[in-house]
Every structure is written in structure tokens, then in C-alpha cells.
TrEMBL record:
Protein name: DUF3363 domain-containing protein
Region of interest called Disordered, as start-end residue ranges on this chain: 1-26
Taxon lineage: Bacteria, Pseudomonadati, Pseudomonadota, Alphaproteobacteria, Hyphomicrobiales
Domain of life (superkingdom): Bacteria
Residue ranges, compositional bias (Basic and acidic residues): 1-17
InterPro entries: DUF3363, Endonuclease_MobA/VirD2
């Protein structure tokens, strides 16, 4: 999605090695493309500039040039048909998707996002998800008017657009939407049920999705704001000259190359002849792309353009958007980090341990997720995850770890594990066995940097040692600290005793500790988050037990579960008469 052009941009530094102009920039872009490839971007390998021949006929450049100067208001619409079952099913539950759309959304006044529909500003997302549950599919649209910030009410615009769509498709549509004003470009997330007014599967032609709906949206924006003035058009195009993303100027340059054997000719009498302002803009853009290694000068005011220019620039644009997301996330936590300390990972992320700073939808159409982690290695990491559900439910500030694992299909994936629901300050004074304690007594703890979050962890480890020393569980010495034998188990049992006492007072049930080899059987009542970890409260009818929790248990909340305590402290669960869930 297009972002503002005057925010943070990634810019290559000045060349100092005496090499060819732009060599540093080419190296920078090549690094970005390698990172983009690891993040799952397709496209051809980034290489030296080469000429491609057009297979579309002449005239594309003239069409593109006219479109640049068009006074029409522009609207970008992205679409996805989300299937609920079958081989193409990939999406998280619709209710989960709606929850995150509202969480990530804000209205014009900065208040949390609120679903709306044709009749109400407070639509019921749960009811909409239930209506869609047995459907084959639903539609997801992101509607982004280029001039959305100037529009009066995006909700009324959405209602007008959907009324027009109903007229075009000759059926009443069941839909909900939410506006997002928390990015540089306000936009609307629109979800349409996959059934028509008669209950049949709603099928919308590709042509209407790609052209018809967009045309109606642009007409409505033009009715509200009027056509763009020449000044507005010029300002928009000037911003594109130095943008690190794919722009309309780039499309025009590529079309010029396609129309003339691969060479962009911006000499007098060549392309853009007769429009000096546009000529100057295109020359400026070609020169900027040359510094990035995307165009190459072929003669005076002549350039060739890399065949994968669009892939490269879209990857640069996405990287810029991610960096903005990371800065905003850190700002909300009162933190500041330099871009040099940012690490952006795709599907091949290494182990990352640190503080959870943010989570959200990486792709708002497909439902893929991301987390931002302030790492103990002193870097801030952005990690892409396969779904929003994979980002977990730990609160911001918790200690988490992202690590790769190999699935049953031998494909490598990433998983996020919670190492502590307690933040550093809470761990320093906690009565239980914390992540800090495990780091202090671990045989081979991961290295902790002296910068960034690593510096905070080092300070917290020192403070935690003082806390333990104050209760006789550690002794300070010149060469370091000596900790009590069985420190982790001592702290764990102490915290379990305190927590079970509180639960016994709340529920009136007696606490019955479990021992290795004992059977665990009863109703799974709730998850209890302690400094020592997450525990499941199991009501066996005579009392309750607190046993190590695992994610699969949440599918059985309020239901009967059985298992056997293992010597290592885990549980071998048997749920619904099926053993071997791998919970241990």
C-alpha cells in the first residue's frame, strides 16, 4: 500500500571508493533484493541492466503519459477471495481477522477501529463471521483513495460505493468494513459475504473486481472532491521523483523503453517532447534510479532500465513501510533505535530472543502476521509469520523467542514461543522462577549485547541477583554470584504454593499437587500465567491441580482432559481418547 513520500526513506550513502557512480547504491539495492528474496518475494534475480523487447505493440508510452496528467481522482483497490475450505484454504478464522482489523484500525480522531455496515456505525463482527461460517468463501477488499485525507467521511463513501456495487451486481450484499487512519494513507477494509440475496454463491467477474468497482470508487471521489487541479497533479508527480518505491513515473519510463527497443530517450524531440515539466520529472526519476542501479545511462539523456525494476522497487517500498512500522512500535514503548540496528527477516529467520514490542497483520488481505522483537543481541527484529494466530497472545513487553522448526512435510517454518509473560521489571521482583533466573543459572545462556535491549537485560540480571541475595538464594562474590542449589525448583514451588492458595480462596476448591507418574484428569478451567511459566488449572471434582500448560489445551477449555505427569515436569495428554499430542 502506498505510503507518504516525506517520511523516512532508505538512502544509499555517498560513494567513497572511487568506483563508478552509483556502485554503492547498487550494492545497497542488491542487499535489499537478497533480503527480499529471503522474505519470500518472487521475481527474477537482480542483475545488470538488460534490454527487453515489447510484445504489446506501440502506443503504451503515449497512454501512460496521458494517464500521468489525468485530472481524475485515483483509487487503489486490492482484492482477495478468501476460501473457507478446500485446497486453497489458507486464512485464519474470519473472526480472528476481524478482531485484528479493528485492533489495527483507528478512526480520524485516533480512537480504536470500529466495524460498520450499511445501517450502523457499530456492526457486529461476531454475527457477520457466524453468517459466513458455512459459506464457500468471502471477499476481502482494501479500498485506498489517493486523496482519502481530503475526504469528509470514509464510512459514507463506503456505503455509497457498496450501494453502487449492489446495483451493478443486481443483488443485495452482506458486508462490514473498518477504516484505518493510522498510516500515511487512510484506507478502508471491506469484507463481503460470499452469498447473494438468494443464498447462492456470490461470483463476481474478474473484470468488475479489477476495473468496474475501482471505476465506481474513482467516480465517487471525483464527485466529492472534484477533478485534480494541475497543481495537485504536479505536486504528486514531484514527490515520485525521489521515492524508493514503484511509481507511475517508473511505469512511464518502462513503457518508453518498451516502445523504442529498450532505450528511454529523453533528448529534445524524444520521449516527453513538448511537455517540459514532465520531461524534467522523468529525467530526475531516471537519474535517481541510476543512483540505485536500476537504470543505466546509454547516452546523453538516454537510459536503459533493469527488467526487474518493478520487483526491486516494490521490495524497497515494502522495506521502507516495515521500517516505519518498527519505528512507530518502538515509539509507543518509549524506545528509540537506529535503522542500522534493525533486522528484517522473512521465512528464514534465525533464533531471535527478546522483548515483544508489536504484533499485527503483515498482509491485511492474506492474514499473514508479523512481530517486532527488541532482541537481547542489541538489534530490533521484524519477523514475518505465516498467520496472525502464529503471533500468539503474549502481552507487549513479554519475553519471546522465534525459532525455526521443520514440519511433518519437511518444510521449515517459524514458531513463536513465550519465555515469560512477565516484563523485565516484573521479573526482577517476582517470587517465582523467572526467565532471568534461568539465564543466571543456565549452563550455556545466549550472549547478551551491551547495547539496546541487551543493556536492559544486563541491568535486570544484576538487579535480580540482588533480589535473590536479599532472600538468601544468592551470594555476591568478587568473581561473581553463587546461587542456591535447585534455585529454579525452589522458586517454582514457592510460587505455585502462593498461586494455589489464591485460587483455593477464589474457587473454594482444595489444591492437590501432582507428582511424576500421577494421572491428571478433570475439567480444564483456565490458564494461569505465573513468573515460572504458564499453568493449566485442572478441576478433578475433589480439588484442582496446576500443571504445565500447552497451546493444544485451549481447544479443550471447559472440557474433560486426561494425561500423565512426566518426570521432566510436562504432561503426556490424552484428549478425546487420542494420545500423543506431543505435549510434554
Amino acid at each position: 500500500m502506498k505510503r507518504g513520500d516525506d517520511d523516512l526513506r532508505i538512502r544509499p550513502g555517498r560513494s567513497r571508493d572511487g568506483g563508478t557512480p552509483g556502485s554503492k547504491a547498487k550494492s545497497f539495492v542488491a542487499k535489499v533484493m537478497r533480503a527480499a528474496s529471503r522474505a519470500g518475494h518472487g521475481g527474477r534475480r537482480f542483475s545488470s541492466v538488460s534490454v527487453r523487447q515489447s510484445s504489446f505493440g506501440r502506443g503504451r508510452a503515449a497512454t501512460a503519459r496521458a494517464a500521468l496528467r489525468s485530472p481524475s481522482r485515483r483509487v487503489l483497490i486490492k482484492t482477495r477471495v478468501a476460501r473457507h475450505r478446500g485446497s486453497h484454504f489458507r486464512a485464519a478464522p474470519l473472526s480472528t481477522h476481524l478482531t485484528y482489523l479493528q485492533r489495527d484500525g483507528t478512526d480520524r480522531d485516533g480512537r480504536p477501529g470500529q466495524l460498520f455496515d450499511r445501517a450502523s456505525d457499530h456492526a457486529d463482527g461476531r454475527a457477520f463471521a457466524e453468517r459466513c461460517e458455512e459459506d464457500r468463501h468471502h471477499f476481502r477488499f482494501i479500498v485506498s483513495p489517493e486523496d482519502a485525507a481530503q475526504m469528509g467521511d470514509l464510512r459514507e463513501f463506503t456505503r455509497d460505493l457498496m450501494a453502487q456495487a449492489e446495483a451493478d451486481l443486481a443483488t443485495r450484499l452482506d458486508w462490514v468494513a473498518v477504516t484505518h487512519h493510522n498510516t500515511d494513507n487512510p484506507h478502508i477494509h471491506l469484507l463481503v459475504r460470499g452469498r447473494d440475496q438468494d443464498g447462492a454463491d456470490l461470483v463476481i467477474s474478474r473484470d468488475y473486481i479489477s476495473r468496474g468497482l475501482r471505476g465506481q470508487a474513482e467516480r465517487l471521489v471525483s464527485l466529492e472532491l472534484g477533478p485534480r487541479s494541475d497543481q495537485e497533479v504536479s505536486v504528486t508527480l514531484r514527490r515520485e521523483v525521489s521515492a524508493e518505491r514503484w511509481t507511475r513515473l517508473d511505469r512511464t519510463l518502462r513503457d518508453y523503453a518498451d516502445d523504442s527497443g529498450g532505450v528511454i530517450d529523453l533528448r529534445p524531440g524524444g520521449h516527453a517532447h513538448g511537455d517540459k515539466d514532465l520531461h524534467d520529472l522523468l529525467v530526475g526519476r531516471a537519474q535517481h534510479l541510476q543512483r540505485l542501479g536500476i537504470t543505466e545511462q546509454a547516452g546523453p539523456a538516454q537510459w536503459t532500465i533493469a527488467p526487474d525494476a518493478e520487483t526491486t522497487l516494490r521490495a524497497l517500498g515494502e522495506r521502507g513501510d516495515i521500517i516505519k512500522t518498527m519505528h512507530r512500535a518502538l515509539d509507543r514503548q518509549g524506545q528509540s533505535r537506529g535503522v542500522a540496528d534493525f533486522a528484517i527477516h522473512g521465512e528464514g529467520s534465525p533464533n531471535v530472543v527478546g522483548r515483544l514490542v508489536d504484533r499485527g497483520l503483515q498482509d491485511e488481505l492474506t492474514g499473514t502476521g508479523y512481530v517486532v522483537i527488541d532482541g537481547i543481541d542489541g538489534r530490533t527484529h521484524h519477523v514475518r509469520l505465516p498467520s496472525i494466530e502464529a503471533t500468539g497472545d503474549a502481552k507487549i513487553g513479554a519475553i519471546v523467542e522465534v525459532r525455526p522448526f521443520t514440519g511433518a512435510d519437511n518444510q521449515q517454518r517459524l514458531t513463536l514461543s513465550v519465555r515469560s509473560d512477565f516484563n523485565l521489571a516484573e521479573q526482577v521482583s517476582a517470587t517465582g522462577a523467572t526467565w532471568l533466573d534461568r539465564h543466571l543459572v543456565g549452563r550455556d545462556p545466549p550472549p547478551v549485547a551491551i547495547t539496546g535491549f541487551g543493556a536492559e537485560v544486563r541491568q535486570a540480571l544484576d538487579q535480580r541477583t540482588d533480589t535473590l541475595a536479599a532472600v538468601g538464594l544468592a551470594n555476591r562474590r568478587l568473581q561473581g554470584a553463587v546461587f542456591a542449589r535447585d534455585l529454579i525448583e525452589t522458586l517454582r514451588q514457592s510460587e505455585l504454593a502462593n498461586a494455589s492458595g489464591h485460587l483455593a480462596s477464589e474457587t473454594g476448591l482444595p489444591y492437590r499437587p501432582s507428582e511424576p507418574g500421577n494421572q491428571v484428569a478433570g475439567l480444564y478451567r483456565q490458564r494461569v500465567n505465573l513468573a515460572s511459566g504458564r499453568f493449566a488449572m485442572i478441576d478433578n471434582g475433589l480439588g484442582f491441580e496446576l500443571v504445565p500448560w500447552k497451546p493444544a489445551l485451549d481447544q479443550h477449555l471447559g472440557r474433560q482432559v486426561t494425561g500423565v505427569m512426566l518426570p521432566g515436569g510436562g504432561v503426556d495428554w490424552s484428549m478425546g481418547r487420542k494420545r500423543g499430542l506431543g505435549i510434554g
